[in-house]
Amino acid sequence: MNAKIEFRKIRTFAEVISISAVFVQKNFVGLFKSVMLIALPFMLIALAINVLLTIAVIPTDFLLQNSTQTANLFFLVFVYLLLFGLSVMVFFGVIYSYILLYIRYPDAGRITVRAVYRKVFHDIWLYAVTTVMMSLLMVSLYFFSILLGTVHFLLGGIAFCGLIYMAVGLSFIFMVRLVERRGFIGGFYRSLYLIREHWWQTFLMYLVASCITFSLVSLPGFFLTFSLRFIDLFETGIYIYAIVMQTLFFAFYFFVFATNLIVTAFQYFALVELKEGVGMMQRVERIGG
């Protein structure tokens, strides 16, 4: 039996990246099944609504036809965005819940899709509140940087750098709230505290992980875009091909992007251990007991 991976451990930049890849390799089947059976259905429903939207706006003068159709269109757009956001939120929940169950269970083989599902929806309001609050904060900071940019481009640039700093600094907020059971404000300050003095390391870590993700999804994405250039979807009646390919691409992208979240989790535990030695104290207590 392969030894379990220890999360509560101080790790260097390279060690976090490498152990994240090892974790994905060792838990590929469990992660894949959980993402496909829990998170993907929400994405499929969102994509189905996207099909309706695509078909609905075939006429270029659609919005000029009548107010009822226009209202229905905007309702579909709202439902699509809501479901798409929900699918992303559940995806985050699946990855983080799997990690927490992995830490909790002595045998990783005991982690089932049902257990992950229960864990995700047990904390669904935590994910929902955190997602909404973080989205509002990031969008506000983004528009604030644009507003300052209209005054002077240097002010806009400084504000945008602040946005990037906050995005990296608050990347631990889900893990903080899940592991330490803090409120949003407490998680906000705790995440910034942990990232302090380690911001550049964490930023570069995310940059490397994102480059790896991009390299893996760029070729399938290019193939999808290239193939659709030669298809007149609405006259040939094979727009289903585009939807199937888009669904497969999103499913692949979802799973590949999971590596970024796993990197975040390992970095969170590494910094907690570096600053507070929680894992070391727990091991000492077990030895003493």
Structure commentary:
The chain is 83% helix and 0% strand. It has one domain (13-282). It has helices at 13-26, 28-56, 67-104, 113-122, 124-151, 153-169, 173-180, 184-195, 199-228, 233-236, 239-276, 278-288. The chain contains twelve helices and no strands. The protein is mainly α and 289 residues long. The longest helix has 38 residues, at 67-104. The relative contact order is 0.13. Helix 2 (28-56) packs antiparallel against helix 3.
Distance between the termini: 26 Å
Largest sheet, strands/sense/barrel = none
Total count of domains = 1
Beta-sheet strand percentage? under 5%
Q: Which features does this protein show?
A:
289 residues; mainly alpha; 12 helices
Topology:
Elements lengths: L12 H14 L1 H29 L10 H38 L8 H10 L1 H28 L1 H17 L3 H8 L3 H12 L3 H30 L4 H4 L2 H38 L1 H11 L1
Helix pairs in contact: 1-9, 1-11, 2-3, 2-11, 3-4, 3-5, 3-11, 5-6, 7-8, 9-11
Summarize the entry for a quick read.
The protein has 289 residues and is mainly α.
